[in-house]
């Protein structure tokens, strides 16, 4: 619907036509194929539906476990068969009821049903019956939407079953390991050089490597559950309030507060997944490091370095670790039940701005974001808090026929989203303390290795692991912010390629982000993504160094190579033999740990320097925030009838148009100046605190209801 690209230079008649379209948009009427509503693909009568839908015979065992009440009413049967037929066809089906249900055989109160208000697009409201007047009297129809159930692999039953079984196996294996250690030491040695290479790796690095990898497996599931929760809430038959769906943020919120907020919103899958992931990423590595101990104690080993030493499993820490694994397995079972009993409502993955734009062109949802170009999250919440939305046939739509109750209106009076337009880890408030934390941790490693302070880490080596885990979690927050903001930063620089609209680094799993950043030549994304991999390695390295006496290795390096005195040589060897590290393993671990911390510090500093500037009016961390950026964009004409396209098909379609895109001030479909994402050429780039519309055309400004 781009007249300039289709017709060339416009005439007076074309200008009048465009002006008429702009006037319609200014009056709240969508144009160019936007907001046409969800159309019915097929119409069936009640008798035809009952005749064509086979009745599945159930065994007595299946009937005994059925929660359905005996003597199901005909209306419920039609509802079940209609939904099944819609799912099977993948089409919107309208069923014409031949018999009006009575209160005796239906739970639906027909007295509260009404047709849509005049002037609104023909959006059907779920499977609720609608009474319409015909020449022959009253006619009852029910509309059934297909309920697709696309889920990423990490949310499907094979993967969930795998991590549940893995949790149980690790818990049982930890108990077996403790019982074995209680009978006889796992490893007995006098000098570290006596330990075979494989056995040395097995007790020195493998436990931490397993616990860290286990945490990554849970991160994959938790990330997808959080990212797709809003779409599940929208796909429910009754839809969801804005505060529970399009205005909820589970991507950038604080990890330890996320379960509380999820429980408050009734998002139990997010709450359960977040708790399990926190346990797997913080408690499990810490307890794993504490459960493996070296006996006898440090003073005895130094006094008698030639005596036998033993690798044992600590009773208390081991039992706590076993219980933690079992608790996580139980949480995994709950998550398995929650995810398998519900449908996602998605045909495929929703990626980037293009994914949301294609879902917003069917209904009149865009009109809810009028005058919200530069609105804050608080403004958006205030305006939309009493609105309900739904996901129907891969399209986002307001649910105007199902208003919120008084209790729901009073539930979400406050908004918890940050009013700052820049993410925390890209601001001085978050970046500077994080960089200082990396520097302090880098200084701490030589302190507990080469000074008498290592007595503390010898008694509580898990403290070092816990600090490394905190560094890892903070780096994860930095990576999340960089992932989320990168497409918008590219758009802010203007004339971005079409693939930027389908680019979504937040939808990519662990490790894959670094590779995609490298292929796309988004170097900052690559370095940050690679740093995430290194943070897992850091946890393994510092755990292995926690109980080492580093001074003896310094003396060994500083000793002259030529003609060492037998006494001195024997003494230094005895000091080294008092521990569990060889000279080579110690210096390699120490050098790698220092390199990882140096890498993290440099990359974090570069990220702050390069991304500290505010380039958006608000953070794009909710569906509502993104829709407010594009609600008046002319590029939306190119997304009409694309709701069911895959991400690859969408990318090909946009590439074929040959347009570029940017973030800034542009002339919207209503002819007025707006701030957001649109096709080039824009009127002006975006500068924080500068309102282009007020500076150039103040007479266009109208009263805004939410101010």
From TrEMBL:
Source organism, top-level taxon: Eukaryota
Regions that span the bilayer: 159-178, 198-217, 268-296, 316-339, 431-453, 523-546, 586-609
Signal peptide: none
Pfam family, one: DUF3433
Keyword terms, alphabetized: Membrane, Transmembrane, Transmembrane helix
Cited PANTHER family: SPRAY (PTHR37544:SF3), SPRAY-RELATED (PTHR37544)
Protein name (record): Spray
